[in-house]
């Protein structure tokens, strides 16, 4: 079965067919760098990471762009409150964002464009929209005229009859809800609340609206039609709706083939908010002694379209699931028996591996996929005594490839010896059996020279790459 995704545009699960075979242009709305990312933001970034890793696992070449929103209503407001320049202020949170995603082992994007680096491209699009009558200038800015784009509302599935009634007004704020559907700001002329944040433009000094930023950056770096565009569900309206309107009026082409949105994270069953005291950044959780690995596991293993209720118990459960995986990998590496693979275990391995892959192909159903992994683990323990090296090597190789997808398997626990190293390891075992300790020691030295430390344990010898 091919990969399928739930497309917010059609509200259906669709087969994934990129514009160009084998190649995926992926755009994900990045952080607004006015504060530290909270664990809700991180849930969305981790879902996008899992998506990208799965596409890579399936052999796609992915070009991934994630923008940094470093100029908008919030960044300007906060930098002024702190008495800092916009660039000094946002630099702190850009760095914090990069630190956090590194801690959580998020694969880096190919490009991290900052909005302030793309002002000329934004101006060019706005000028074109003005020329074509899709935008108009007022005393305080340039607005997109939504009545000139008949399919406005197609992503958010807005009722067009109510739309017409509400569409008479205009709004300059970056964020608003569906009840306030209106013409939106492409350019905001300078006002004293903007401090010294302003750029020259043909329509007066000012700054871009938030929505035009993503249109300009995605167009510049990925072209006119993207394969996948992601964000959290709060981005769907008005941000993504407005991106579609601007981009499609500018290029005349479909903007995005598949829209994927992550459902919000809640904490202890409630919306995260500072006043409720349930607002967490990654730093808060690390300070409480939680491990990045367990946090990654906890945030990633719920299906991205299901609400994720974050609790400390969830992270404790993640720790114990990880321990189960670690123990299993350790047990796999203790098996020394040669010979044919034990058939029942081999068959179970193949069917669980396939079930894992099929679940992931099915709109990234990670929760089900993890279930298949744990069944594979259970099957191993059931047949542990009959398992041979042939069984364990295929399982280790699979878990090694899974590390690239999941990012929470410990690398060293899935490491496999090369044929030559394995021969030395086995020869040492043989020498010990024959009580030829001088030879056993020499072989241990030989392995050490190759960076492999061998230790004897009550369960038999184990090795570790140094
Ligand atoms: P922002 O920094 O606010 O621009 O958001 C960065 C990303 O986090 C966007 O894709 C948002 O949709 C997403 N996001 C914001 N709040 C949450 C939340 N509580 N749960 C999941 N994703 C969120
Ligand atoms: Zn965006």
Which properties best describe this structure?
single chain, alpha/beta, 5-stranded mixed sheet, 15 helices, elongated, binds adenosine monophosphate, binds zinc ion
Q: What is the H-and-E element order?
A: EEEHEHHHEEHEEEHEHEEHHEHHHHHHEE
Put simply, the count of helices is 15
Report the sheet with the most strands, covering strand number, pairing sense and barrel closure: 5 strands, mixed
Average pLDDT confidence is 94
Distance between the termini: 41 Å
Bound molecules: adenosine monophosphate, zinc ion
Beta strand %? 15-25%
Query: Radius of gyration over alpha carbons?
Result: 27 Å
Uncertain parts: none
Count of β-strands: 15
Helix content: 40-55%
Structural class: alpha/beta
Shape designation: elongated
Task: Describe the model.
The chain has 466 residues and is α/β, with parallel strands linked by helices. Helices cover 46% and strands 15% of the residues. It has helices at residues 39-57, 73-81, 86-103, 119-131, 160-166, 210-222, 236-251, 282-287, 292-300, 312-334, 343-361, 366-382, 389-406, 419-433, 437-449; strands at 4-7, 12-15, 23-28, 61-66, 135-137, 141-144, 170-171, 183-189, 206-208, 226-232, 256-262, 265-267, 308-310, 452-457, 460-465. Helix 11 (343-361) packs antiparallel against helix 12 (366-382). It binds adenosine monophosphate and zinc ion. Zinc ion is lined by residues 29, 214, 239.
Brief account:
The protein is of the alpha/beta class and 466 residues long. It is 46% helix and 15% strand. Strands 5, 6, 7, 8 and 9 form a 5-stranded mixed sheet that branches. A 4-stranded parallel sheet has the order 4-3-10-11, sandwiched between helices.
């Amino acid at each position: 079965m091919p990969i399928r995704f739930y497309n917010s545009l059609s509200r259906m699960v669709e087969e994934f067919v990129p514009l160009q075979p084998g190649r995926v242009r992926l755009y994900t709305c990045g952080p607004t760098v006015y504060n530290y990312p909270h664990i809700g933001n991180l849930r969305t970034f981790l879902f996008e990471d899992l998506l990208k890793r799965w596409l890579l696992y399936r052999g796609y070449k992915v070009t991934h762009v994630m923008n940094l929103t470093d100029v908008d209503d919030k960044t300007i407001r906060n930098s002024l409150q702190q008495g800092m320049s916009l660039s000094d202020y946002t630099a702190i949170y850009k760095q914090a964002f990069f630190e956090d995603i590194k801690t959580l082992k998020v694969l880096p994007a190919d490009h991290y464009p900052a909005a302030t680096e793309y002002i000329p491209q934004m101006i060019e699009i706005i000028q074109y929209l003005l020329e074509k009558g899709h935008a108009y200038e007022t005393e305080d800015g340039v607005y997109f005229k939504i009545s000139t784009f008949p399919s406005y509302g197609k992503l958010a599935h807005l009722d067009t009859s109510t739309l017409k009634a509400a569409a008479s007004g205009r709004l300059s704020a970056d964020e608003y809800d569906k009840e306030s559907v209106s013409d939106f700001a492409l350019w905001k002329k300078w006002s004293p609340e903007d401090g010294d944040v302003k750029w020259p433009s043909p329509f007066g000094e000012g700054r871009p609206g938030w929505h035009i930023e993503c249109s300009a950056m995605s167009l510049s770096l990925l072209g006119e039609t993207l394969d996948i565009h992601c964000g959290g569900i709060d981005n769907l309206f008005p941000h993504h709706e407005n991106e579609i309107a601007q981009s499609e009026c500018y290029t005349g082409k479909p903007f995005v083939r598949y829209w994927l949105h992550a459902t919000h994270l809640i904490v202890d069953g409630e919306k995260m908010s500072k006043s409720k005291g349930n607002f967490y950044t990654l730093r808060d959780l690390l300070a409480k002694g939680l491990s990045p690995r367990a946090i990654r596991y906890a945030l990633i293993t719920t299906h991205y379209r299901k609400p994720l209720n974050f609790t400390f118990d969830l992270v404790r459960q993640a720790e114990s699931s990880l321990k189960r995986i670690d123990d299993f990998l350790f047990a796999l590496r203790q098996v020394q028996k040669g010979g044919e693979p034990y058939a029942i275990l081999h068959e179970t391995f193949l069917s669980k591996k396939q079930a894992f892959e099929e679940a992931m192909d099915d709109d990234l159903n990670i929760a089900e996929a993890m279930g298949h992994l744990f069944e594979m683990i259970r099957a191993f323990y059931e047949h542990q005594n009959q398992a041979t090296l042939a069984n364990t090597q295929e399982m280790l190789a699979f878990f090694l490839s899974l590390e690239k997808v999941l990012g929470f398997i410990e690398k060293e626990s899935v490491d496999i010896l090369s044929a030559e190293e394995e021969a030395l390891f086995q020869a040492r075992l043989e020498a010990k059996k024959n009580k030829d300790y001088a030879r056993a020691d020499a072989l241990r030295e030989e392995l050490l020279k190759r960076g492999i430390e061998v230790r004897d344990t009550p369960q038999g010898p184990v090795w570790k790459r140094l």
